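Postdoc handover notes: sequence design on the structure in folder B. Input tokens:
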């Protein structure tokens, strides 16, 4: 069966991976899943409010059920394990998504132990947090200026608490400017969890976090053991690694939002996701690896960068971000991102 990437009016979408030929399936308003009566092995029919979609598991890379209210048979979860397909379930009234993921399997370099050991080392944990937040600050500069003195304070911060306090100061300015750009009262809009802008931001965040989760699991890291976000009750590492790339989906909301006003309904979420998908397929030049890749590959690259640092392949954590070509001697990095594009 050939699965076509598509955007549905109910915000159901698949997203094709050019590297594997598989798709990610993001399905809101889920009701049930059941085997199809076809000759193709392990093909399942997903029924949602208003329709259905069928897909063989061998062609699926990741599944997210958003607003799920139905049931999942154990047989289906068993088959996901066989095909090593992560499953995320999220609803707006859930504080964090529910995750099913296959066993990580053997890892000769034991990156998981190194991840946890590094997390317990305050110096190294603070270094990782600083590096991620520095990249986040740079990504904000399309909207607000971030002074050199802020980066100097960040470079001197030696605890995760101090880093988070500085982040909160800069982020407060950023969100004020962000909502002003949308023509909204920031003090009012940010408090309303059901505001269409906030719903679109949350949905887009989970879209990107789903991609990151896939690569975190692929490289045998623990999603729950982060450095900047220290709680282990949710995939904190995923939300650490999303920081340098939040601008991608935040800008997608800016693009999708009608600045003349906003009607009721969830249509803004669907439009945001459409912009986000297009953006993630765009080419971007990455100076640290001297590659041109699709922006979605940056989400794989940051996991590869963290893994290289944890196993001591690199003495520094180097975040792959888009930029301009530069002259001079290239930085030596131990990884290259898959999916490089010819220039």
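Designed sequence:
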């Amino acid at each position: 069966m050939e699965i076509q990437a598509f955007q549905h009016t109910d915000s159901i979408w698949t997203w094709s991976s050019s590297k594997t030929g598989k798709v990610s399936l993001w399905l809101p308003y889920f009701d049930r899943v059941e085997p199809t009566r076809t000759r193709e092995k392990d093909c399942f029919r997903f029924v949602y409010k208003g329709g259905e979609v069928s897909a063989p598991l061998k062609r699926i890379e990741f599944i997210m059920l958003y607003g799920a209210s139905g049931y999942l048979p154990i047989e289906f979860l068993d088959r996901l394990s066989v095909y090593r397909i992560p499953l995320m379930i999220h609803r707006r009234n859930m504080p964090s998504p529910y995750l099913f993921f296959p066993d990580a399997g053997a890892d000769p370099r034991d990156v998981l132990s190194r991840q946890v050991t590094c997390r317990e080392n305050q110096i190294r944990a603070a270094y990782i947090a600083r590096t991620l937040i520095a990249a986040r600050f740079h990504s904000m500069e399309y909207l607000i200026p971030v002074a050199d003195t802020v980066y100097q304070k960040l470079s001197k911060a030696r605890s995760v608490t101090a880093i988070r306090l500085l982040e909160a100061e800069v982020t407060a300015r950023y969100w004020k400017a962000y909502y002003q750009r949308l023509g909204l009262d920031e003090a009012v809009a940010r408090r309303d969890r059901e505001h269409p802008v906030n719903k679109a931001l949350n949905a887009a965040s989970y879209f990107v976090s789903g991609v990151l989760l896939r690569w975190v699991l692929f490289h045998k890291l623990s999603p729950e053991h982060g450095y900047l976000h220290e709680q282990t009750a949710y995939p904190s590492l995923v939300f650490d690694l999303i920081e340098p790339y939040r601008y991608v989906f935040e800008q997608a909301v800016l693009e999708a939002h009608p600045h003349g006003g906003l009607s009721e309904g969830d249509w803004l979420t669907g439009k945001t996701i459409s912009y986000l998908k297009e953006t993630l397929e765009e080419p971007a030049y990455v100076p640290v690896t001297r590659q041109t890749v699709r922006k979605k590959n940056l989400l794989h690259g940051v996991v590869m960068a963290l893994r290289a640092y944890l196993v001591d392949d690199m003495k520094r954590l180097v975040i792959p971000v888009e930029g301009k070509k530069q002259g001079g001697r290239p930085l030596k990095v131990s990884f290259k991102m898959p999916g490089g594009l010819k220039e």
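Context for whoever picks this up: Strands lie at 13-16, 23-28, 30-35, 43-48, 51-56, 60-66, 87-90, 98-100, 283-286, 291-294. Don't rerun without checking with the PI first.
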